[in-house]
Amino acid sequence: MSYSASSMFDFPNFSPTAGIPGAGRIEAEALTIGAGFRAASNPHASGGRYLEATAPASQAGGLFTGATGWYDLTLGYFDESDGVSHMEILVNGRVVDAFDWDSTAGGGIVTAAARAEHTVAGLLLAPGDVLDLRGAAEGGEPLRTDYLEISAGSAPHVPESLRVEAEDFEITAGFSVVRNGAASGGFMLQHSQGSTASARHTVAQAGWFDLTVGYFDETDGVSRMEVLINGDHAFGTAFDSTQGSAIANRASAATLTGTQVWLEAGDTIEITGAGDGGEPFRVDYLDLVAVEGPDDGPGPVARSLDLRYGRDGVAYIALNDGAGGFTEQPYTLPDARGYRYARDYDGDGRLDFLVAWATLLTPIEGNDRPAPVDIDFELTTTFYHNDGGGLFSKEDPRSEVFTITVGTYPYFENGGTISELVQLIDADDLDGDGDIDIVATSYGSESLLVFENRGEQGFELLPPSPAYLGYNGNPGQIGDMNGDGFLDVVISAGNEVSGVVVMLNDGTNHFTRAGALSPSDDGSTNEIIVDMDGDGDNDVLMQAVSDGAGVYVYLNDGTGRRMAEAPAYPLSYDNYVGRMVAGNFDSDPEAEIIMPGFVDAREGIEPGLRVVSLNADRSALELESFDPGIVGEAVAVGDFDGDGDLDFLLVPRLEDLDPDDPIPVQVSLILNDGEGNFTNAGPVTPVFEDERYYTYSNPAVTVGYFDDPFPVA
């Protein structure tokens, strides 16, 4: 039996309707034909008919209707001697077996002598799983497929344990093979070029494993390592030992283990990371130790998003049990003030926090400044490392003084404030060097600011990037708008501009304006970076208020610049939208907008869950569906129940809250069936009793992975 992670055939999305029972036979001609098959009659076939190829590639399949369990699948077919056809058997789009029809004993025509069967044992199937057959005829053998038979099976045998030397991995970036007497097998991989190094191993057998990575954790730097399975984070660490050695020897040898990891043949295990200081990221080996799995059997281990929010003056993390159930626990970040950015800054797959704030040191004069003046301010930053399960360890805070030049133009009626001089908006790895930089807007200097992370040397304020921002607030978001791998910035510009401005990063953290969208002169809100039209680049969704009211899309042409027209969902001056979210909630490539709080008194529109998307020619936004039973503010989007589709979180509408008779404020989970049909699964947090903590930004729900997908030893 051979396995492959992906199919050799390129068929469009396949949605069969034929049912495949949990026990018994289904004739091939009863399957849903996707492409290239036709039914034909023959007295030698089961039921008197079979499927045969009519094209170079053929596909047919159905939906499994039996109970969840282990099964054996048998394919009946006719293996003639005048060709070598090829067949793949897939479950949910993944090849579980592939084989050639290479018999020489069956004869060149369909007879009883050409009958053959092929069995795939030990498949874990669940209701709704898609089973499909994909094949290619060859020569005079037209891929004649007779039946599928399902029978009770058993779990696969426990695979063999093995060690894979790092030097036997496929190097994909930055590594060199280096000889070392302390290494297993006498060689190791060493980061030698580029900003990151990576190498991968392709799995040859299915089963549950503990994965142990051997590496060298030296004392003269803090390298970082991440282990990916099929491109998704599995576990990782920072090489932060202070007790080993400054060289790669037995004293600095270390291991990290991810436990109970399900692997299938064809899966890829990738080790990636970067060196630091005198420690150049050295990897020695990978042990795959076969273990028994949990009682519920194998399958993809889905990471389900956790929550972070503030409630009644206390910060909480709610850890997801994988099915949309949350366990709330408080955590402590002693710095009460400042902006808290949740980012994985050490590469271990868990969200850490960067807390930052700015303090004005030089008063800013009001109007009529005769000349530009230099203003000093202090930036204070503290990193909190996530130790797992909501426990955080604090690094020493750092305070640094910087200077910004304020020109004669910015208008400060009563003297400028720190938020007008420096408005911290986001933090991430802007330039791809592996650390977290901070980006801010500055109305006072009419520019975009970057505080570049220099590691032990602290942050450096780079030369400002000119940006006409408008007054009364300039928040923003980070995202790659032109596909070059460097993070760009989308600014929500204030009054006078009143829209979104896209600023492109040249890779050195210098930004230039690519385009803007300003449909109103009274401000904008609800800016979201999302691929609205499914063309592979990020667009920007926004809501304009007052004159020009509506929901608009800045459609990206792939370079960060805006296409000529901005599709819109027009609203009246008196509308209320509240918080909305966007993402691909169904099986088509385009994104949908979720607006569960929208109401328009002037137009007589009542609130409810509205799903809105681009029309066919991308010229306007149109209503897809409406559910009056789901009303509120959408505060976060993600896969919260681990089923592979996007859900969202809901809180009561801000305009419904009455200080004299407040309604209960809770975060509720709205589950998606995968096709954009939603069900309210109920509250997932206790009641927020203090309404002071309920504003547009609060509950400040952050979603992400606060614990490990696999336990790490």
TrEMBL record:
Signal peptide: none annotated. Keywords: Signal. The keyword Signal applies. The keyword Signal applies. InterPro entries: FG-GAP (IPR013517), Integrin_alpha_N (IPR028994). Gene3D superfamilies: Galactose-binding domain-like, Integrin alpha, N-terminal. This is FG-GAP-like repeat-containing protein. The lineage of its organism: Bacteria, Pseudomonadati, Pseudomonadota, Alphaproteobacteria, Rhodobacterales.
